[in-house]
């Protein structure tokens, strides 16, 4: 390989590595948001869960549902009670306070974890809320996620660092080989 080919390989490896790492990071950060199901309450009351497990319930204080923007104050969730039951069996699911607080802000959506629900089987579920401030004229958006958005972000950060690091090291190797070849 000529020194010119090695220099070109060095530049292309760096550019390609940068593009791949940016696409990877964007995909890893956005993909957890695709797994979140939104529910406008009390206007909507059923939600479908494709698998059993524990889902985090987020209160989206800034949100877009079906092209409509919703913005509510944190006071909307004061005294908020949530119950979830199977449409088929009427079995009540376990709903508990969230053990920690996680927040997100992506695109036009911002939310904070408020509770978690354990779903025992895939299917349709009825969500009922009790709140003195949430009405059909003053709805709120709840979002349900069985994934951990923080995990997606951590994978995005470390994956991007690995891809960028590998492309940088490979580019430097090509550059050093090109310099050595040119000196001969």
Number of contiguous helices = 2
* General shape: elongated
Q: Between the first and last Cα atoms, what is the distance in angstroms?
A: 13 Å
Total number of domains: 2
What value does the average pLDDT take?
A: 85
How much is the radius of gyration in Å?
24 Å
SSE diagram, text form:
Blueprint: H1 3-34, E1 37-41, E2 46-49, E3 53-65, E4 68-71, E5 81-86, E6 94-97, E7 103-106, E8 109-119, E9 123-130, E10 140-145, H2 149-183
Antiparallel strand pairs: 1-10, 2-9, 3-4, 3-8, 3-10, 5-9, 6-8, 7-8
Report on the structure:
Helix content is 36%, strand content 35%. The protein is of the alpha+beta class and 184 residues long. The model has no long low-confidence stretch (mean pLDDT 85).
